[in-house]
Write a structure and sequence with these properties.
Its EC number is 3.5.4.2. Catalyzes the hydrolytic deamination of adenine to hypoxanthine. Plays an important role in the purine salvage pathway and in nitrogen catabolism. InterPro entries: A_deaminase_dom (IPR001365), ADE (IPR028892), Ado/ade_deaminase (IPR006330), Metal_Hydrolase (IPR032466). This protein is an alpha/beta fold. It has one domain: Metal-dependent hydrolases (TIM Barrel), CATH 3.20.20. It is 50% helix and 13% strand. It contains 17 helices and eight strands. Helix 1 runs antiparallel to helix 15 and helix 8 packs parallel to helix 9. The structure holds adenine and zinc ion. The site of adenine has 11 residues, from helix 4.
């Protein structure tokens, strides 16, 4: 229906279209400038002498090489104000990119292991979420992620520490080092999360095999898969994901920076959409991977010639439909999306 919109208008359209972001680690939005400012404010020492030296270290060979530097960057976060400032900086940028709704991951174990309380993390983030709704008109919700390189016992204790703040987050996810830490390692903690009525997602099929995607669905009973790009290695799984309309939160710039794909031209987003999957575009860790949400859309569409305005519409619509927002909010946002595309029609 929108294929008639000229290719040269795509960048303008991609920027203007309303969209949701469903895969953003808030600690991955921490820009080097803010890392240095918070280090100074909190008297925390850093391993890098300057902002430029830190940024120069952002050359990753795989997920683990990134995670090592990402956890080091998060060490400057100590107070509620720090968590607020980090999330506020992200939400300000997202609102300027026509993101109407963001579902934001946070990694409490990264902070509680350093002696920062669960309340400090969650209340600081929640203040930014509430302020962004009031001052920027952007809707946001928090998703607590368990670190999969740690034990399930640690995840269970983390969940119990978060229960007093149950009203401040909508769901749980699973992130960090994927290989060697399969979803079934977290079966009991996800069962407890289901009892608590939390929404469930998990990273799977980023570096891990298609079996991790299957087990995230069958054992953890997740509602969305974060990344999931390796599903294409298992055609029966692709068929199932399409039939059951399981959303995939794909992160193109991340995938290239972490060498999941050699170049953006080799990314399989076009293949996922052609297979009828409910794929979405997301930024993952924008401060580390070279761009926020619109840059992900722009670079992907520039590199994949088969993607046109019809795909842009599908991706934006998928982002709303795959969100955990109310049906009324989804309908309102999709109406705004339709209005934007109508303006671009020849
Ligand atoms: N891309 C990613 N995969 C797994 N864990 C992460 N934590 C932050 N970004 C991540
Ligand atoms: Zn991620």
């Amino acid at each position: 229906m929108y294929e008639t919109i000229a290719r040269h208008r795509l960048p303008e359209l991609l920027r203007a279209m309303p969209k949701a972001e469903l895969h953003i680690h808030i600690e991955g939005s921490l820009e080097p400038e803010l890392i240095f400012a918070l280090a100074q404010r909190n008297h925390v020492g850093l391993a890098y002498p300057s902002i430029e030296a830190l940024r120069a270290a952002y050359a990753f060979t795989d997920l683990q090489s990134f995670l090592d530097i990402y956890y080091a960057g998060a060490s400057v976060l100590l107070t509620q104000e720090d968590f607020h400032d980090m999330a506020w900086a992200y939400l300000t940028k997202a609102a300027a990119e026509n993101v109407l709704h963001a579902e934001i991951f946070f990694d409490p174990q990264t902070h509680t292991a350093r002696g920062v309380s669960m309340g400090t993390v969650i209340q600081g983030l929640k203040r930014a979420v509430d302020r962004a709704q009031a001052e920027l008109g952007i809707s946001a919700a928090l998703i607590l992620c368990f670190l999969r390189h740690l034990s399930e016992e640690d995840a269970l204790q983390t969940l119990e520490a978060a229960v007093p703040y149950r009203g401040h987050f909508i769901g749980v996810g699973l992130d960090s080092s994927e290989r060697g830490h399969p979803p079934e390692k977290f079966a009991r903690v996800y069962a407890r999360c289901r009892e608590l009525g939390l929404r469930l997602v998990a990273h799977a099929g980023e570096e891990g095999p298609p079996e991790y995607i299957r087990n995230a669905l069958d054992v953890l009973k997740v509602e969305r898969i974060d990344h999931g790009v390796r599903c294409v290695e298992d055609p029966a799984l692709v068929q199932r994901l399409a039939r059951e309309r399981v959303p995939l939160t794909v992160c193109p710039l991340s995938n290239v920076k972490l060498c999941v794909f050699g170049t953006m031209a080799e990314h399989n987003l076009g293949q996922l959409l052609a297979a009828g999957l409910v794929a979405t575009v997301n930024s993952d860790d924008p401060a580390y991977f070279g761009g926020y949400l619109n840059q992900n859309y722009l670079d992907t569409f520039a590199a994949l010639p088969q993607l046109d305005a019809g795909h842009a519409y599908t991706l934006a619509r998928n982002s709303f439909e795959a969100s955990f927002a109310s049906d009324a909010d989804k309908a309102r946002w999709i109406a705004r999306l339709d209005d934007t595309f109508a303006r671009f029609q020849p």
